[in-house]
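Objective 1b: paired records.
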Amino acid sequence: MNETKKKVSEPLLQISKRDAMPWWKSYLVRAAAILLALLISGIITAALTKANIFVLYKTMFVNTLAVVKKNKLVFSVTKLWTILQEVAILLCVALALTPAFRMHFWNIGAEGQVLMGAFGCAAVLITLTGKVPVPVLVLLMIVASIVGGALWGVIPAIFKAFFGTNETLFTLMMNYVAAQLISFSILHFGWGASKGMNYTGVINLLGANKRVGWFPSIFGQQYLMNILIVAVLTVLLYVYLKYSKHGYEISVVGESENTARYIGVNVKKVIIRTMILSGALCGISGLVLVAGTDHSLSTGTAGGRGFTAIMVTWLAHFNPAYMALTSFLIVFVERGTKELSTAYAQISDNLADVLVGIVLFCIIGCEFFINYRVRVHLPKNRKEGKAE
């Protein structure tokens, strides 16, 4: 038989999966991505403000941790504690997403689960303050927050386990249901005008029950309790996922449900149990927001953290030990860009959000180059081969 041979050329771009990159190289790539993002953001900001790019960087980094006193920049302990508190809240939500994501259950409903945890805490504070002893009130706040978040997490888990529904869409829609439930409760029950609230809706700020149910200050620091709670949760979740039987089952189900069934793992039970845990941790985030931070309830209580936390946990590769660093990075960049918008009239809050988006885009984009190798074959270098 005659064989016809055709000349073929290699593609212009060739993308192939990398072998595992050494950890130090991967961190160098991430560092380069952060520097590139800061450079792009700096160029855009300098073009708008006509300011020196190095002056902009100084404003961004220094003003985030300092205040002006007597025409001098002075390190601000208050700003530092505020940043650490924001890091703690974001980290808490990221921790909540981690078990579900390790199981490859794409929980996009953290926003709603945080809102339901906040709803449970606020409902107890508003309706039971002064009617039960304070220790009982605090216990009920904790229980209501955990139950609220867990309930909002387990509903889509049940439908996923028994009916195979799409968890991404289901959990996303649950966010809107939670927001509307809170809006209805505030309007229908008149919580905004409840006794003990001021005109901004802060719970237990006025009257005989002033600050009842609020987290206490520790060593004079208002947010230290929040930070300690999240630090303990970080350690516990790390141990749970890495060393417990449940953590092992989560990983196996995430790798392959068929393999999990073959070795005797009850997949439905693991899905439901893990989403109860994920929702409960989101509920604790809501508790911290109401009892330790805002002391109020609204549809904006979660503040978009449920979506930002997705990036935090993804960038940390679902490792709770690394999430504190990624949370700090995102919070610091967000506050730095807000400081720029305060210092320069040409920069609006919307532009500050765009700059944050550029930074996050570069950081997430670098993960592609960590996991894949891109080869470019220029026309003069492209080799011709033969295919039969």
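Objective 1b, second protein:
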Amino acid sequence: MSNPQTLAELLASLPEEERIILTLHYLRSKSSSDIAAMLSVPERSVIVVIESGKARLKGVLGL
């Protein structure tokens, strides 16, 4: 990658909902069910955001 970014910069570049969910899941070790309850959204929605966000970050990092 020609322009390395910190994790904080990568997370900051994501849409707010995605950033919140990924932060709770990966940095605060919250389960998808816990996040769904905290945000009052379906757990499946949280799972989809985690999967798509992980794929997006991998793409940006070239993994």
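DSSP finds four helices and no strands in the chain. The chain has one domain: 16-61.
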